[in-house]
Amino acid sequence: MSKHIYSEFLSEEDPLLSDNEFLEDALAELQNKLDKILDNQNEILTLICQVNCKTPTAELYNIKVDYFPVTDPEELPNLDANLSKPGNKYANIMLGILRPEGRKEPLKNNFSKVFECDVLMAYNYDGVSSKQSFKQYKHINKTIFGILKRDGYTETEYIADIRAAFHVLKVRYHKRNHDLRRKIKRSQKCEPESDWE
Question: 58 lies in a domain?
């Protein structure tokens, strides 16, 4: 933004250009305030550009993305502890997984990319029906909520999303096991009944 002296744009007959000292002082004060606003705006825009250009990524941290999906149930408390530290590397990796290329996708589509089905079969969000509670991992939930957050997104919606993600994950797990058992049964039916052929 450029700074303008507005007296240059006013015509000769304009009452604001009269010899009244009060008006001249008021215009000078307004001009100074406008200059400060423009300086602040330029500073804010510069800082925003710096922040956007220096967003940390997984490549910046030089870590293996092989950590995800989490395959060991013992690793969940460690991940939760790591996510509690400021500037942790795992939050950015999770952001890349749950929002690939910045696209907003439902949690149920990408939840299995963060946690393997076998790990989460012992969990549900509230810990009911002889399952462990997933909400005990406050920092994991806080990180996922922060990644999914958008205008008007509430914690209630997050809980509904994570419950749906658990449901989809468990349906996939049981479907995979069912298909595997079915495949084994079919292969056993094709084998000969006796060993002496």
Answer: no
